[in-house]
Automatic annotation (TrEMBL):
Membrane topology: Multi-pass membrane protein
Family of this protein: Belongs to the binding-protein-dependent transport system permease family.
The organism of origin for this protein: Actinacidiphila glaucinigra
One annotated GO biological process: transmembrane transport
Domain of life of the native organism: Bacteria
Protein name according to UniProt: Carbohydrate ABC transporter membrane protein 1, CUT1 family
């Protein structure tokens, strides 16, 4: 009882009535319907992720610890697949070939994309045509047909071989030579620089022209403006392209198989084009060692994930974001 009730005995405390929930207004009901509609539209995507991505990944993780030949029941063998992998000289060779391809092809591809983007960022006649022409190889470059054409151009006594002999260099067919087959594959990769070029173009257009004008007034040359203004301003775009191209390069398959098919098997002459994904395919579907192939797939995923983590860890030292933004 309150002090007033204690001093006034005629005041009787009324029992409190339970709080009644007010009915939802039209706005709340509308938001609820929109939420339900959003989840309904997300349902096909969620089902696809569970059945086509997450489910196969979990099955593959289980098979990585089993002996499975695609026909019999998987037999649990623990870490034997991983031990056999590290003792496999051909697996190490595929790792070396893939790393050489990634470390050489990715920087050259990004350099070509950035160089062409710098040429096309300024308004000029026929700019749309040139952008489309440089972008087209990215759409068709990874196809089997382009790989066959590329192999026909660089094989023995083909166009490139005849042109080189005309200038006095008789090197023979590139795709049939173990020393030149991987550079041929790198050349095909660099030729497909259109996709990162478009992203670089978008980044270059965001650089304020006032910075270049002020640098010109201060007497900065072309290289100084590129190093002090262009690169820092487009460093987030450069980081994005670098990350995507590294991941894409580790997954190279079609072009390597098509080019390598002319030199003693899909691995190329002397296994010079034995990239990681082709060896994974060979073990899983030719040798029917799907458990071993699953272990290889998870090692590839682990390697790409580790490299991605290193890039995100080191990007704070060379990637410059606008004030108020940060990459976590």
């Amino acid at each position: 009882m309150t002090r007033t009730q204690m001093t006034r005995p005629d005041v009787v405390e009324r029992p409190r009535t339970p709080h009644r929930r007010t009915p939802e207004g039209p706005r709340a009901a509308g938001r609820r319907r929109e939420t339900l509609a959003g989840y309904l539209f997300l349902t096909p995507w969620c089902v696809g992720v569970l059945l086509l991505t997450l489910g196969p990944m979990l099955v593959s993780l289980y098979l990585a610890f089993t002996d499975y030949n695609l026909f019999d029941t998987p037999r649990w063998i623990g870490l034997r697949n991983f031990r056999d992998m590290f003792a496999d000289d051909r697996w190490w060779h595929s790792v070396r070939v893939t790393l050489e391809y990634v470390l050489v092809g990715t920087p050259l591809k990004l350099a070509a994309a950035l160089g062409v983007a710098l040429l096309l960022v300024r308004p000029r006649r026929g700019q749309g045509f040139y952008r489309s022409a440089f972008y087209a190889p990215s759409l068709i470059g990874a196809s089997v047909s382009i790989g066959i054409v590329w192999r026909s151009v660089f094989q023995d006594d083909a166009v490139v071989d005849r042109a080189m002999r005309f200038v006095g260099w008789d090197a023979g067919g590139w795709v049939g030579d173990p020393d030149w087959s991987l550079p041929t594959l790198v050349t095909l990769t660099v030729w497909q620089f259109g996709a990162p070029m478009v992203i670089f173009l978008a980044g270059l257009k965001q650089v304020p022209r006032e910075l270049y004008e002020a640098a010109e007034v201060d007497g900065a040359g072309v290289w100084r403006r590129f190093r002090s203004i262009t690169l820092p301003m487009i460093s987030p775009v450069l980081f994005f392209n670098l990350l995507l191209e590294l991941i894409h390069s580790f997954q190279v398959f079609t072009s390597a198989v098509v080019l390598g098919g002319s030199g003693g098997g899909a691995g190329g002459p002397a296994d010079s084009l034995l990239v990681y994904t082709w060896y994974l395919y060979e073990q899983g579907f030719r040798n029917l060692r799907m458990g071993y192939a699953s272990a290889m797939a998870w090692m590839l995923m682990l390697g790409i994930g580790l490299l991605t983590a290193v890039l995100f860890r080191t990007q704070r030292g060379w990637v410059h974001y606008e004030e108020g933004t940060d990459a976590r």
